[in-house]
Amino acid sequence: MKTALVTGIIGQDGSYLAEHLLSKGYQVVGLIRRSSSPNLERISDFKDKISLEHGDILDQPSLQRVFEKYEFNEVYNLAAQSFVGLSWEQPIYTTEVNAVGTLKLLEVIRTVSPKSKFYQASTSEMFGLAQEVPQTEKTPFYPRSPYGVSKLYAHWMTVNYRESYNLFTCSGILFNHESPRRGNEFVTKKIVNSIKRNELLRLGNLYSKRDWGYALEYVEVMYKMLQLSSPEDFVIATGETHTIKEFVAEAFSYLNEEIHFEGSGLDEKGYTKSGKLILEIDPKMYRPAEVNLLVGDASKAKKILGWEPKVKFTQLVELMMKDK
Questions:
Q1: Which of 102, 123, 188, 241 is catalytic?
Q2: Average pLDDT over residues 200-209
Q3: Is the pLDDT of residue 36 over 60?
Q4: Cα–Cα dist 71/5, whole Å
Q5: Which of 125, 178, 217, 246 is catalytic?
Q6: Overall average pLDDT of the 170-188 stretch
Q7: Residue 125 known to be catalytic
Q8: Any catalytic annotation for residue 123?
């Protein structure tokens, strides 16, 4: 039986990945920070089938203790301060967790468990101000947020440890991926929750374009990457791009309701057919440095891993709207 460590196991991706690994017959160990009331909701259905260990990727001794207790075949680093907007308010914390935390985990692997295969959760936000469209594994990076910069450091450290110490370390450069388990602070879940609750929806830039996929499919490719005989980095994306405005309209259409937009820029508003105000722009929600067009080319993943997305944009929105 293989043993895998999943950091960030109580998050969207971590919970889906844990389930996927269990289905493959793995012993799954999840790293969680000690808390008076940890939120285990996403893993509640299978919590008894996994082992939870207290630790923190910022606390190297706690990591070492966990690695000395188990012999890990695979390590999936999904722990992060993953909210882009918050990274401008807390750039130091974001950098410590996403960048330095990854480095500490790599150091423990190098010194204690060099045979472990390591997966780093990289992000399309590293492309930021996109230098070409679509983005591939060879596209130059240009991050536009403290989050993107911190993730780029972790990405290059993952490459560096692979090349310097001959470790099996690889990165999945994942574009936006959503699901019913998405955190409430993310724009897609905010849209869905507001519409379901019939609340006024306040958003920033409606015209930012994103490549949105289904999180469950994306964790499957994380697993596939660590089954290769040699480590490689992959862009994981749908190759389709949609605006936030399109997401809003699609979510309303699921309820057989049309949204009508009036005005432009900061004055733009959305109304139901009956004339009820349901959307307005909040200038405070604009990012200091915007990322307007991210769309990925996952051709390499299709060729080498045999992976391609199946759930389309409209299906993804429906999945999130159906969820109770």
A1: 123
A2: 92
A3: no
A4: 10
A5: 125
A6: 95
A7: yes
A8: yes
